[in-house]
Specification:
This protein is of the alpha+beta class. It has 10 helices and 18 strands. The chain is elongated, with a radius of gyration of 23 Å.
């Protein structure tokens, strides 16, 4: 199967994060088995989704060291988007391949799988590993299960390429992503009897304003990294829900917020500022009105920041293969920081452009797919 055929197959599976990805994963696993490659799966606790990891050994059978080719199999929803074509049927038009996930990031997975027969035939001294995850789009929730198994199995790759869409240019750093859900519990009352209630929305608003104050502080005071399009850490509240009627003091208000931290800034220290304000200022004021008031903050998904070393072998190799020496850092997150976190030096490089991702009529260009295959072939030959 060539890369286009693989992409058509992969796009045909609706692997929106809320769905299972097992049909896709099992198709890949079975095909690899037919190539003589045994893959292992790392499931979620419910066993409705799975990561896949496979090793194409070196010519002498060695499975240690080598390079990981990493991609996520899940995609974002198409709900409410105005697509010109069926998003789960690959359509080619004017040199572009349209379909959900074509760009982000089934194109890289397709290119990697298409090269497997060539990889197996190469007289490589080092292995190539395939790592395909689930639930990246909802906070990199799946990959940690795979990486835990990787450590337990004693597999120690020397480097990793995460094939997120970068236009086949090298990305050496990205911000961390940290998501939180907050529930503010007050006391309901008729709005004509305001002092008898404790307004959850109003206190949630105070906390949201505190989060904005922290965001403004990052913007005004840094730290800064001018290689990013947004050169400072950011915080933002993105969803809120509360109240049941126009004449009822709301008992509950829920909202979600996130921050995207520059590498080097500690997420725990940022979150500690939020929790200190809740503990020392906001909650005492609430309890003065209603002793049963409470504020819950639940940690959601988190993806660590990435800062690749320019001296790392994988960075130098990918730069040499792409002939790209420009320093690029991005605000969006990937699973690269997770690989780096367990001691596998990692860079990001893959076909397509992030501007095409997550939109209706998502696409990857044929020339990007060709460039990806050329890169992967040269990578295999370098091993």
């Amino acid at each position: 199967m060539n890369a286009r055929t693989w992409l058509e197959t992969l796009v045909g599976f609706d692997t929106t994060s809320r769905n299972s990805n097992l049909a896709l994963i099992e198709t890949v696993r079975d095909w690899l088995k037919g190539q003589g490659v045994d893959a292992w799966l790392a499931h979620n606790p419910e066993r409705t989704k799975a990561n896949l990891f496979a090793t194409l050994p070196a010519q002498d059978g060695n499975q240690q060291g080598g390079i990981v080719l990493s991609g996520h199999t899940d995609v974002v929803p198409v709900d409410g988007q105005d697509w010109s074509t069926d998003p789960f049927k690959l359509v080619e038009k004017d040199g572009l391949l349209y379909g959900r996930g074509a760009c982000d990031m089934k194109g890289f997975i397709a290119g990697s799988l298409a090269l497997v027969p060539e990889f197996l035939a190469m007289p490589r001294k080092k292995p190539i590993h395939l790592a395909f995850s689930y639930d990246e789009e909802v906070g990199c929730a799946g990959a940690p299960y795979m990486l835990a198994d990787l450590l337990e199995r004693g597999i120690r790759p020397e480097g990793c390429v995460v094939g997120e869409p970068t236009g086949m240019q090298v990305v050496v750093a990205h911000k961390g992503i940290n998501l939180f859900r907050c529930k503010v519990h007050g006391k309901a009352a008729h709005s004509s009897l305001t002092p008898r209630g404790c307004n959850a929305i109003e206190y949630a608003a105070r906390l949201i304003c505190r989060i904005r104050d922290l965001a403004d502080s990052f913007k005004a005071n840094g730290p800064y990294d001018q290689f990013y399009d947004v050169p400072f850490s950011t915080m933002t509240t993105n969803q809120i829900r509360g109240g049941i009627a126009v004449n009822t003091i709301p008992e509950l208000c829920e909202f979600t917020y996130e921050f995207r931290n520059l590498p080097g800034m500690q997420p725990d220290e940022i979150q500690a500022e939020v929790e200190k304000y809740v503990r020392d200022e906001l909650l005492p004021r609430m309890k003065a009105e209603f002793d049963g008031a409470s504020i819950e903050i639940e940690t959601g998904a988190a993806a660590p920041a990435l800062e690749a070393s320019e001296e790392a072998a994988i960075t130098q190799l990918v730069r040499a293969l792409t002939e790209d020496r420009t320093t690029r850092k991005v605000a969006y997150g990937t699973e690269a920081g997770l690989f780096q976190g367990i001691g596998i030096p990692t860079v990001v490089c893959g076909p397509g452009h992030i501007e095409q991702a997550h939109k209706p009529d998502e696409y990857v260009a044929l020339d990007q797919m060709a460039s990806c295959e050329t890169f992967l072939r040269r990578l295999g030959q370098s091993l």
